[in-house]
Design a protein that fits this description.
alpha+beta; Immunoglobulin-like; Rhopdopsin 7-helix transmembrane proteins; Phosphatase 2c, domain 1; 3 domains; 5-stranded antiparallel β-sheet; 17 helices; 46% helix; disordered N terminus
Length: 623
């Protein structure tokens, strides 16, 4: 399940940091494409057009544009203003006006060093002092190889510096998220050596470079004395990002096995993006920017289609992938429409790209995290196989005998069978129960890893379970109490678990899960599975677990199990699609034959065991 609470928290923080000073409207401008000098412009020889329909954007093919607008002080006192051009990537700007019968000119060159700027800001900005009720007509010539636009804003000086401070804090939060996720996933890669993490980390790194270049932070904060245009490096970085996100998608979605055609199509796109990155220093900039108009929708539709196909084929973590691309798409659209003045300026519109990409990388990270448990188990399996020796096995076997129940419940309202098969002589699976007059509480758990170390940690799980006895009638409270205990007691080890409380008086089953597989209910020959999502025990102490309830009937048969029951039988398929066809022919068998025959059928399908196996079946006795 996607933890929307964390994402909403990030968005609230971002909005809080981003709001405050009201963003001024853009000035009403007029424009002309006539090739005239500033002196000729002042003489009034140019023919001007209003920019209402163009919304301050003039396309990709014009080399320059002249714009003019009025800067007005409506107050009866002298006011300091800041004129900001929200285009850190612009090539050149010539700004001028008439004052006291003389012309005043200021120039901006995107290829010059940041230290040469009049005001140290990532965008071209200019300071004006206007006398009471004074109006100045400002003339600006903008030159750019790429999209030509004039996104001006006129600020009062105090409002500008207040907004600038909030902008830096908001962007600091954004870069902090990117670098935190980069470091976190690098550490995971060191542990699990999964190739998807490499591509994801490279994507995060190029994403941070992209926005540092696009937002003007690269020169401002990293190389303030660098005297060259960063535009070609931006194009290299953007195409490199698309290359790495394509490679990540190929690995994550497992398309080579699921759909070879989509795999080849994305691989071909990756090669094309790599070639574009290499050629970015040669191809004209406006051509590259126009190509992005088609590239982004193409890659969006391609990867969304691949993610949807992968999800339909059973790769459930692809749902995170789909949400990630959707949030990025929404963010980019709002950002583009806001910059084009087609929609009112809002916090989400102003920071659409940052919010969209932040959501995207968080969801990508969550998708990778869902695979972490299985990767950790494989890694721990290898370590355990090297360290397991006869003396440890003997010790662990004795511990195992003490922590598992030595009898089954004697309640006349149900009958219970248990199969417990550790991968080695001992294992990390665990089950136990509380029995009382009007109910039964059952815990089933799986410590990551196998063998001696997992068996030792399963004894800690038993302690956590017994210490939580006061919550035996409330599954979510019991699981929560166990989680808090295990967060303090386990070291670099996690536990999947589920607790089930059967209320015989109301004939209800209450349950709460921490990453455990769904359980199965058989009623009147019909088979159904139930799941309650939750974080693994031992990961985060303050996690709030859910609780669900279903109605029971006499004659119901319920199956509880760990993931070892179905893993390695049919890769990439869900538990339901593996187990239901094997259970259906057995539903009419008595409980003992059903239990034995099901275990035998699954064992015959399993070529090699890679995990501990626990199966608990409960029949509610008919009167």
């Amino acid at each position: 399940m996607i933890p929307f609470g964390r994402i909403k928290l990030f968005l609230l923080i971002f909005v809080f940091l981003s709001c405050g000073t009201k963003i001024p409207e853009r000035p009403l401008i007029q424009y002309t494409f006539e090739n005239k000098t500033f002196e000729q412009i002042l003489l009034g020889s140019a023919v001007w057009s209003k920019a209402h329909e163009l919304k301050y954007n003039f396309g990709y093919w014009k080399p320059f544009v002249w714009v003019k607008f009025d800067l007005v002080n409506p107050d009866h006192e002298t006011i300091d203003y800041i004129l900001e051009l929200e285009a850190p990537w612009v090539d050149k700007v010539l700004l001028g006006w008439e004052e006291g019968g003389k012309s005043v000119q200021k120039q901006f060159d995107g290829s010059s060093s940041f230290a040469d700027r009049e005001i140290q800001h990532r965008n071209p900005v200019y300071r004006f002092t206007l006398k009471p009720l004074e109006t100045k007509t400002i003339y600006v010539k903008i030159q750019n190889s790429g999209i030509l636009s004039a996104p001006f804003r006129i600020w009062r000086i105090n409002s500008f510096f207040d907004r600038m401070e909030r902008d830096y804090i908001a962007n600091g939060v954004y870069f902090g998220i990117i670098f935190a996720l980069l470091l976190y996933n690098l550490l995971i890669y060191v542990s699990v050596r999964e190739r998807a993490y490499v591509y994801y980390c490279l994507y995060l790194a190029t994403l941070a470079i992209n926005y540092s270049l696009l937002g003007g932070f690269f020169k401002q904060l990293i190389f303030p004395d660098l005297a060259l245009s960063v535009k070609p490096y931006l194009y290299v970085s953007v195409n490199t990002s698309l290359t790495f996100v394509g490679l990540f998608s190929l690995t994550f979605l497992n398309l080579k096995n699921l759909n070879p055609f989509l795999h080849r199509l994305i691989l071909l796109s990756v090669v094309a993006f790599g070639a574009m990155a290499v050629l970015s220093f040669i191809i004209p900039h406006n051509w590259i920017e126009v190509s992005f108009i088609y590239t982004f929708p193409y890659i969006f539709l391609l990867l969304m289609s691949a993610g949807a196909y992968s999800y339909i084929k059973g790769v459930k973590s692809s749902l995170f992938f789909l949400f990630a691309w959707f949030t990025l798409f929404v963010g980019v659209i709002f950002d583009s429409l806001t910059k084009a003045s087609l929609i009112p300026s809002t916090t989400f519109g102003r920071y659409g790209v940052q919010i969209g990409t932040a959501f995207e990388v968080i969801l990508f990270s969550l998708a990778l995290g869902r695979r972490l448990r299985f990767l950790l188990e494989e890694n721990l399996l290898s370590q355990n196989q090297l360290t397991t020796i006869k003396k440890d096995l003997e010790t662990a076997r004795k511990i195992q005998m003490r922590i598992l129940p030595d009898t089954l419940p004697k309640n006349q309202k149900l009958s219970m069978f248990v199969s417990y098969h550790p991968l080695y002589d001992v294992g990390g699976d665990f089950y136990d129960y509380f029995e009382f007059s009007e109910g039964l509480g059952l815990i089933i758990a799986d410590v990551t890893g196998h063998g001696v170390s997992a068996a030792l940690d399963s004894s800690t799980v038993k302690i956590a379970f017994r210490n939580a006895k006061e919550f035996k009638e409330s599954p979510k409270d019991l699981i929560g109490a166990m989680n808090r205990f295990l967060c303090m007691s386990l070291n670099a080890r996690f536990v999947s678990a589920a607790y089930f409380y059967i209320d015989f008086k109301e004939m209800n089953l209450y349950f709460s899960s921490a990453g455990n597989p769904p359980f199965i209910l058989i009623r009147n020959r019909e088979i159904e599975s139930f799941e309650c999502p939750g974080l693994l025990l031992g990961v985060r102490s303050n996690f709030e677990y859910e609780q669900k309830v279903i109605n029971l009937e006499k004659g119901d048969r319920i199956l509880f199990f760990t993931d070892g029951l179905y893993e390695n039988l049919k890769p990439d398929e869900e538990p339901d699609t593996i187990l239901f066809p094997e259970i259906q022919p057995l539903v009419d068998h008595p409980q003992d034959l059903f239990h034995t025959n099901l275990m035998n059928k699954l064992s015959a399908m399993r070529q090699i065991s890679k995990d501990d196996i626990t199966l608990v079946s409960i029949d509610l006795v008919r009167d």
